[in-house]
Amino acid sequence: MSGDQLSTVLMPLLLALIMFSLGLGLLPADFRRIAAQPRAFLLGFACHFVLLPLVCFGLLSVFPLPGAIAVGFMLIAACPTGTTSNLLTYIARGDVALALSFTAAASLMTIITLPVIVTLAMGHFLGAHQQIDFPVGFMMIQIFAMLGLPVSLGMLAHRAWPRSVQRFEPLATRLSTLAFAIIVIGALVKNWALFEQNFSVVAPLALALNVLMLILGFAVARLGRLERRQAVTIAIETAMQNATLAIVIGSTVLRDDALVVPAAIYGVLMYVGGLVFAFTVRRSAPPVVPERPDELIAPR
């Protein structure tokens, strides 16, 4: 399979598989739970969709990078939380139900927020003449096809065939993990020269962004008077991004290989900060029974 076929056909299909498996593990109750704890969700929304892009933009202002690489950072900051956050929340003894609810809602809200943030970033870092050459609405449709539709189909399958889905979920999780690995490895192989050229400057900034958001997410949640388990969850949800989506968007929608470099590097390094944070806060946390341990999804 050629590099173009990998970008335009295989990657979107693999991402759809990942998001479908997420939908298999979701119930309408996960969305209704948001109404039951609106303060936690609103603080999480502020951290993820407002604070994260602002912090990323601030870092890029202090440590300037080439235009396309800078846009790639804003792309990863604009993506929804990755479902790896559910697993890390479980490890850290956070609020798993809140993590599931936020992951589901963030994936749908990104359909609107991501095109806006990326369009503004391209205008700022690349210049007005190099902005996206198609309407923002078209990007929203593409993102819905890659995110909203597969998640919705997964939820419908869960509702229609709950027993079959329960048996299929372990296999879906393994297939999704494999899909994630294929996408990241494919991006590395296809753009190896770009990675070699930019790794030394991108990796420190990616790690700094991840660590900063873990700290700030936790601090904002505590200042907002959330209890400790919810604060841990907000921190993880703020820092763990859907790097797979960023890679696919950069390759297939924006068609610029340089945009996937920050996403692929962040997609690997975020596990370093995330796991250190999870195991650190776990030491001081009392044991808890997870709300829905059977619904944890593998890394995306």
TrEMBL record:
<keyword id="KW-0472">Membrane</keyword>
<feature type="transmembrane region" description="Helical">
    <location>
        <begin position="134"/>
        <end position="156"/>
    </location>
</feature>
<feature type="transmembrane region" description="Helical">
    <location>
        <begin position="177"/>
        <end position="195"/>
    </location>
</feature>
<dbReference type="Pfam" id="PF01758">
    <property type="entry name" value="SBF"/>
</dbReference>
<protein>
    <submittedName>
        <fullName>Bile acid:Na+ symporter, BASS family</fullName>
    </submittedName>
</protein>
<feature type="transmembrane region" description="Helical">
    <location>
        <begin position="41"/>
        <end position="63"/>
    </location>
</feature>
<feature type="transmembrane region" description="Helical">
    <location>
        <begin position="259"/>
        <end position="281"/>
    </location>
</feature>
<dbReference type="InterPro" id="IPR004710">
    <property type="entry name" value="Bilac:Na_transpt"/>
</dbReference>
<feature type="transmembrane region" description="Helical">
    <location>
        <begin position="201"/>
        <end position="220"/>
    </location>
</feature>
<dbReference type="InterPro" id="IPR002657">
    <property type="entry name" value="BilAc:Na_symport/Acr3"/>
</dbReference>
<dbReference type="InterPro" id="IPR038770">
    <property type="entry name" value="Na+/solute_symporter_sf"/>
</dbReference>
<dbReference type="GO" id="GO:0016020">
    <property type="term" value="C:membrane"/>
</dbReference>
<keyword id="KW-1133">Transmembrane helix</keyword>
<feature type="transmembrane region" description="Helical">
    <location>
        <begin position="6"/>
        <end position="29"/>
    </location>
</feature>
<feature type="transmembrane region" description="Helical">
    <location>
        <begin position="98"/>
        <end position="122"/>
    </location>
</feature>
<feature type="transmembrane region" description="Helical">
    <location>
        <begin position="69"/>
        <end position="91"/>
    </location>
</feature>
<keyword id="KW-0812">Transmembrane</keyword>
